[in-house]
Design goal:
Length: 116
């Protein structure tokens, strides 16, 4: 649909799915991405993360299922945000309970990146 280059698609996907900008940098050598593709991928990942930092607290406030349970919102935040800093920002913008659950969830995701 967007007609993006395969390398750029892989870079954006890894950044959004794994762990943000560090994943884009790590994936660059594997997919042999050009510097301008890496810059575009990092920009896209940062833009999406910034939008999420403003959107998630609104979800916490206006979506009844999320607002009713801080642990659910924390798991949702930690499982779907790609940057640890974004998880901390969103969690603290919602509540202390959301922040602690979100951070633990995100750190479990980070630990799962290690090869066994």
């Amino acid at each position: 649909v967007l007609k993006l280059e395969p390398q750029l698609t892989a870079l954006i996907s890894s950044g959004a799915a794994i762990c943000g900008c560090s994943a884009v940098a790590a994936t660059q050598t594997v997919v042999k991405g050009e510097p301008h593709e890496v810059a575009a991928a990092i920009g896209t990942v940062v833009l999406c993360g910034t939008i999420a930092m403003f959107l998630y607290p609104l979800l916490w406030k206006f979506v009844p299922a999320l607002a009713a349970d801080a642990k659910l919102m924390g798991i949702f935040t930690g499982a779907t945000m790609h940057e640890v800093a974004g998880v901390v920002a969103v969690g603290n913008a919602c509540s202390a309970d959301v922040a602690s659950t979100a951070l633990v969830t995100k750190l479990v995701r980070v630990c799962l990146l290690a090869p066994f």
